């Protein structure tokens, strides 16, 4: 059976280097982020390679989801996702923060109910 995604329009995934603009996809099995622009790097054989920045997190690997906002600028909202192996991922710049958080919570709830059956 196909796992339909809810697409959250342009968002940013924060890295230690800088925020990366892209799309966030939320399904009943995983969340995925794909950057709008490709990253360019040099391969071991010296060729330039272009590839989008992708992050895929299975919902069963999520320990918690924390909504957050900048106290000085409440319009700057964030969603932190912490995995069971204590990696954390920060997403920001949502067109609809409430909608993104709602879909993420619904997907996690559906998955937990599925495993309780």
UniProtKB/TrEMBL annotation:
Domain GRAM, residue spans: 13-110
Record-linked Pfam families: GRAM
Domain of life assignment: Eukaryota
Family, as annotated: Belongs to the GEM family.
Official protein name in the record: GEM-like protein 4
Lineage, opening ranks: Eukaryota, Viridiplantae, Streptophyta, Embryophyta, Tracheophyta
């Amino acid at each position: 059976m196909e796992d339909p995604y809810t697409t959250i329009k342009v968002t940013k995934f924060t890295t230690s280097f800088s925020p990366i603009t892209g799309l966030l996809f939320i399904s009943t099995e995983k969340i995925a982020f794909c950057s709008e622009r490709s990253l360019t790097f040099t391969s071991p054989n010296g060729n330039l390679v272009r590839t989008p920045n992708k992050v895929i997190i299975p919902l069963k690997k999520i320990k918690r989801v924390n909504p957050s906002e900048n106290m000085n600028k409440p319009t700057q909202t964030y969603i932190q996702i912490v995995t069971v192996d204590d990696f954390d991922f920060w997403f920001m710049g949502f067109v609809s923060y409430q909608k993104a958080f709602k879909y993420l919570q619904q997907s996690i709830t559906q998955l937990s109910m599925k495993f309780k059956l």
